[in-house]
Design a protein that fits this description.
The structure is a homodimer.
Chain A lengths: L4 H4 L5 H10 L1 E5 L4 E3 L7 E15 L5 E7 L6 H5 L10 E14 L1 H9 L1 H27 L2 H16 L3 E3 L2 H7 L4 H13 L3 E3 L4 E4 L5
Antiparallel strand pairs in A: 1-5, 2-5, 3-4, 3-5, 6-8, 7-8
Helix pairs in contact in A: 4-5, 6-8, 7-8
Chain A binds a DNA duplex through helix 8.
Chain lengths: ~210, ~210
DNA sequence: ATGAGATGGTGATTTAAATCACGGTCTTCA
DNA sequence: TGAAGACCGTGATTTAAATCACCATCTCAT
């Protein structure tokens, strides 16, 4: 099977792409599957070629708090950080859309950092991006009330799915925001009253305008 | 002035230490001073040789939410990540104890990654450590009630200062936990009732046992 | 078509936390 | 020494959110 790595990772050098095609194992995941589990050892670095991954932080009771998305051209930062030692995953990664990842044996991490400038830049950029996303998530969590968190959540969804019609399951949103279904239900109603969203049939909502 | 860099960074190669002594600018900060401001451009990578730094995330109203400490032998991860582009600081760093830092011009970052294995390891380890600390902070923020947050806060303080007698200012704790003085005051009283702490004179408390 | 299971809406109640209001106790320094 | 300023404690009230209770839909497989 031939992958279009150039498309997903346009900044990679030709040599690196060739090396990737040679060394990397291709894995396909279906929606709902788990890409990485909390506590699981990383055996390889994971690069997302296609699809969409949702990353969560879990607490002891199994509550799954949403932290960020991973998209094509991105990588699981934690799998990279574990390169040297045998480290466990600190997060849970669930497949949203059918996803193609390439898994690179950990030992190439350091070697390629040395050999390919584009890999070096990619790794540092990955760290920076994930760190910043985490800071933003922390902001939302620490400084915002639930109504604002919900609005920010909807904005993220709209942005990531590039559509103003979202399939939203209140129960799931509640879990991901560490709230409860009833609260989300009432807040959704308020957003609709404020004209920010329109509640359609089923589990569909239309985003009208999420700016206050 | 001669710095004991070997002591603060025991894993650095001799050559790297020599290079550091040559290239780095030494800066001394007094308690209360600001090491890095949110929005400020990084001109250099900051390594902590001695002292203690408290790092905060700020919201628009200037609320300062505590995220983690930086200690000798550690570095400001964000200053490293900004190495390539001109990036602004996302956090606020305040000096707790008189602190000595060495400031390294950004251009050496990439060069040394190439030249010194110990620098490479240090940078990756810094990223990993900060990322993990941020995840832990997020846990506390997302999953814990204020009483638990306070207990975790006190544990961190005890650990970092290596003493069971803490100088605690309720007003400040409230700000750092994004709560209010009154709430902290009442929770402290409860912790004292449960025998977990003892409230001494002034702003002193003694940690007895913070495990439930 | 119907009953099970998943989802959603909503009133009532409880709880955690924030806020208000006020008075007390230190420290300090002119 | 005594007034200002920085803390702290605590009752009362309000607010945001969680929880409880219950019923309404919707989906889907038999």
């Amino acid at each position: 099977m031939k992958l279009d790595l150039r498309n997903a990772f346009p900044n990679f050098e030709i040599k690196l792409i060739e090396n990737l095609e040679d060394k990397a194992e291709i894995k396909i995941f279906e929606p709902g599957e788990v890409l990485m589990k909390t506590g699981q050892y990383f055996k390889s670095i994971l690069l997302i070629v296609d699809g969409l991954i949702k990353v969560y932080r879990e607490d002891e009771e199994g509550q799954e708090y949403f932290i960020y998305y991973l998209q094509p051209g991105q990588a699981c930062a934690l799998s990279m950080m574990s390169a040297s030692k045998q480290e466990k995953s600190e997060v849970l990664g669930k497949v949203v859309n059918k996803t193609t990842v390439i898994a690179i044996p950990l030992e190439y991490m350091d070697q390629w950092m040395h050999d390919y400038k584009s890999w070096y830049n990619f790794v540092l950029e990955t760290y920076r991006k994930r760190f910043e996303e985490l800071l933003i998530t922390l902001d939302h969590t620490a400084f915002r009330n639930m109504d604002e968190k919900l609005i920010l959540y909807l904005k993220r969804e709209q942005l990531i799915h590039r559509t103003s019609i979202l399939t939203i399951n209140n129960t799931e949103v509640a879990q991901e925001l560490n709230s409860s279904r009833e609260v989300i239900s009432r807040l959704m109603k308020k957003l609709a009253e404020r004209g920010m969203i329109k509640q359609l049939k089923n589990q569909l909502i239309e985003i009208i305008n999420l700016e206050y």
